[in-house]
Amino acid sequence: MVFGLFGSKRELNHFILITLDSCRYDSFMAAQPRTIPKLVGGLDRVEKRYSYASWTAPSHYNLLTGLMPHSSPANVYASEYYKEDFLRYRDRLGVKDVEFKSMVPQLWLPKYLKGKGFETNAMVSLPVLNPATGVNKDFDTFKLMPKHNDMLAMLDEMEAHMKSRPSKGLKGDTPQFYLLNVGETHYPYALPDEPRGLWPQISGVNGVFKKLDEQVKDGELVSDNESGEFFDQDKLDQLRARQINTVKYLDEKVFPRLYDMVPKGTWITVTADHGELFGEMGYFGHGPILHDKCLEVPFLEGLVR
Predict the structure, then answer these.
(1) Is residue 277 part of a domain?
(2) What pTM value is reported for the model?
(3) pLDDT of 125 higher than 70
(4) Burial of 210 (0-12, 13-18, 19+ CB in 10 A)
(5) Which of 43, 133, 143, 259 has the CA that lies 20 to 30 A from 220?
(6) Domain assignment present for 273
(7) Average pLDDT of the residues in 198-223
């Protein structure tokens, strides 16, 4: 069932921006998703784009300045590319004039959207984006989810918003912006019901900060080597297969519900904040890595009709 808009006075599109955390382009394509690419008419129309950053926090900062992953065009001035890319917000928001001067001086998409009458919401899976960080600016609601790998719980929250705020939410007259940072595709690439502890703990920056003071003795770093020995290629291949499997899960179990629950006139953008390395040139993961696979991300977007 698709929620209708009979009697709605909403003129702008709802806008949902989904980042599949760490999901590199070829993992997405290897999963051969069927539901997610319906926005663009099929998997063959999913674009390979490039993140502006190789790590979750700065890549989301770029997204929230309005910069989507780029196509890396040759023989084009950056300024010309930015103009063309920003004009896509006419389609995303359902407006004729996006009034780019309104983005200055903050250069902050949530601020701009609030000025257009949007309610701004975020649900994030990774603690590095928690509500105490700088990305929580000009959001009406911002929540770090209890589990890092449960997009279905985000949809539960969205439905709860609709029920508790009849005049707002996705069924109301107020246009909604949602940022959904999805963690199933992030290490250890686990489905929501998988027991914890099957793979070594690899701390991100949040975990590093928590432990660092305890690991510095007499000015020297004494590591606890929490992650153990570096994965061999067999383990890395298993991990890539796990990421592919999470895309299949999201495509089969989660996105059908999302597409069904949002009303017509909702623009959805699906991408990733960055890619991931699974042994190429000796690398694993993302962050302090300079490699194409750390920047290659899927990109697709369209209007739910």
Answers:
(1) yes
(2) 0.91
(3) yes
(4) exposed
(5) 133
(6) yes
(7) 65
